[in-house]
Write a structure and sequence with these properties.
The chain is built from five helices and four strands. By secondary structure, the chain is of the alpha/beta class. A four-stranded mixed sheet has the order 1-2-3-4, covered by helices on one side. Helix 2 packs across helix 3.
Length: about 150
């Protein structure tokens, strides 16, 4: 996950915990590693996961750069992605489609997030009543070869 003081990290971690709960799986904090949003730190944290007695068979990274670092660590350990460990990123950035293997990634609707944010800000500036402060938008999973 990203840094513990990051709002996106907190929300994405909540989603991760919710998915585990929905699947009847307990959250194991030993399997969660907080790092900066970059590949180098993710590489090091993935090495820590690979040193566990029971190596995970899948990794969810909170952005695609982190997923790239995790993939490098997995491959450096002589393991295969996705055959030994599947990797999923988040953001569906350009990195996701140009790495080898290409990264399966959650694709948030960034354009719609911007549009909704602008409309909310405009309502605030015009002192209009805001009907709904919680807006849920659809995301999609872009399946590639890492998972």
């Amino acid at each position: 996950s990203g840094p513990i003081d990051s709002v996106p990290m907190i929300k994405r971690f909540y989603g991760y915990q919710r998915a585990l709960l929905d699947a009847g799986i307990a959250t194991d904090l030993q399997l969660t590693k907080a790092v900066n949003w970059d590949a180098d730190n993710s590489f090091l944290k993935m090495q820590e996961l690979l040193a566990l007695d029971k190596v995970p068979d899948g990794v969810f990274c909170q952005n695609d750069a982190m997923a790239m670092g995790a993939i490098r660590a997995i491959q450096s350990a002589g393991l295969r992605v996705p055959e030994d460990i599947a990797v999923v990123g988040f953001d569906n950035s350009v990195i996701a489609s140009v790495t080898a293997p290409s990264i399966t990634s959650v694709a948030p609707p960034f354009e719609e997030i911007g549009r909704q944010s602008f409309m909310l800000l405009q309502s605030i500036l015009e002192k209009r009543e805001i009907a709904n402060r919680n807006i849920l938008l659809d995301t999609k999973l872009v399946c590639r070869t890492s998972a």
